[in-house]
Amino acid sequence: MSFSARPRSMFVQNSWYVFGWSHEVAEPKGLLGRVIIGQPIVVWRDGEGVLHAMEDRCPHRHAPMSRGKVHGDTIRCMYHGMTFSTRGECVDMPLVQPAPDCRLRTYPVTERDDWIWVWTGEPGGEAAIEVPRAIGINAPGRPMMASQIEYDAHYQLLHDNLCDLSHVDFVHRESLKRATGADWAETAPRITHRDRGLRFERWFEEAELPGKPELKVDTWIEIDFTFPGIFVMQGERHAAGTAAACNRQRPLGIEPLMRNFEQQAVTPVGANRTAYFYATGLSGNTSETDAHVTRRMAVVNAAFEEDRQMIEAQQQIWNLTSADHTKHFLPQDKGPFLMRKLVDKLLKAERG
User: Fold this and answer.
1) Global pTM?
2) Which positions make up the signal peptide (predicted)?
């Protein structure tokens, strides 16, 4: 697949995208600017704490509104003072009466599972597509830690990475592989289709228990990967033999030795720039669990830096490679192939 198309043509417009974590714009009058699929967007809270999203580009001289100030239910550009309502209408401009007849594009915005989501598509279309579900990082009894990183790479290379975790055995040999105690490249997940996404399920039988390699466990992994790049994973460690007892299906009604949770989102910034939001956590509400989550987050941070280095290097080679250059299809490519097929379907539907 070639990534040489114009930036806007490679993005699905009609989608809810993760703008950031709710805690990044937590206080009334807070504001934050980011770029999503090539569109500069500012998210802000008015004086009552209500969330709004609009074009991060003042129509006067295109200064970023995210460098402005919130006053009650208006936002003012702090370059020359042009002020806008929550509907995007200009309501005040020094020396100009009445206010100029101009407006900023506004975007539907909402919060769910501790993420801020922005709809970038056709006005009114947001009602037809549900905001993807995740986990949420602030639930009692499930401590989680969150962070984010950006990649100089096309968003579908990150999709590929998340839909084929066999790379854990190689890219993350000293980080995630050791932390999970599993051989990710030795078995294939069961993949099923879901609405605008895929589900991956698998058992790792007789996996090592990290820190106690002499002990063996059966590990169940369930991943939902939903467009536009929402990765939600739940893992369970069970006593050895549980996988066989369940006929290698989902372990319903069996209490695990430990549960872990991952919540991640891929948000395209531009043609070859992608934001990645992630969180990791465990079940439990003790100081020991909190300490374990802190250690786990250190491993996750190291692993995603490993991913960043590999994927950015991969992007550089893709930039030098023609679209018709042969790529060999392997069994590990099933997940990435199905996800790319879904993205192509969504893009074609928008183009007509």
Assistant:
1) 0.94
2) none
